[in-house]
Design goal:
The chain is built from nine helices and 14 strands. Helix 2 packs antiparallel against helix 8. Helices cover 32% and strands 25% of the residues. A hairpin with a 4-residue loop joins strand 8 and strand 9. It is an alpha/beta fold and 347 residues long.
Length: 347
Amino acid sequence: MNDFRVTRTLDEHAADAALRTDVLHGLTRSPKTLPPKWLYDARGSELFEEITRLPEYYPTRAEREILLERAQEIASVSGARTLVELGSGSSEKTRHLIEAMPALDTYVPVDVSESALTGAAEALLAEHPGLRVHALLADFTRPMRLPDTPGPRLVVFLGGTIGNLLPAERAVFLADVRAMLSPGDALLMGTDLVKDEAVLVAAYDDAQGVTAEFDKNVLNVIDRELGADFHTADFSHVAVWNREHEWIEMRLRAREQVVVKIRALDLEVRFEAGEEILTEISAKFRQEGVQKELAAAGLDLTHWWTDAAGRFALSLSVADGIGTDGWAGTPGSTGRAAGSGAPHTAA
């Protein structure tokens, strides 16, 4: 693959060190927490792909609907010659954008999995022989330097993953993205929108129990990587809608009093019956809230598209004070209505 290269910014031991730190800090605090990124080992990624096909889990279908309908418009208004995808994974959804961008020169997928980067690049180069792929093996939640590629650049952050970050973390993340942008560059971001509580809870606690298995998989990761003796049967999966913060909380609740040993950390963790580990938040958004968060980071929301049912949104924003002839300048050109106010999230 002559048109494929990888720049590695992660130390080969970085993941192990990060897991140790997160488990030690998260399970010795009250309430106990674990970052959602540890849900996604190979098995967790398989389970999440299964989740995206469940009838209750609408975000993936809703976002794909917008991409299929609006890819040409996104390509036209961005004029992008470089497409940067944060947390690219299999790059499946991004294919809709790439196919709509005949002038695209370079695709820059960013992910912590080198195997995912390589697999996606092989598939894309087979479909688009003239495309260059410059992958970054990196953690997109940390500041990074993009490779020198032709502009304008379109940075995409899909799937509603922004909702997994707490508000303060989102502010830092968006500021870091703004720092990556040059005049004429833009950010395309997926956000899940606020909607009926029953619909939201069902999306994160499906009838088949796939999400429960996915949530409990983090315990298997700790057992395997850190020599712990968690038993998934000792915990129940719980999904709760937090009305105050407008986010879903996924938790693992101890069925009874449990003592877990984590050999690699020389740590013993006690759980009282009913005690929980917060494993993920999935914030849901409203258009006005998204616009305010973008503006605080120096980004102007110029386009807002939703699926037909108004469940999910894609927003396009540009660096504050930067414009091209393609930008509308105000939130217009929407999938439904410019003011269809509800925002976003995904696991």
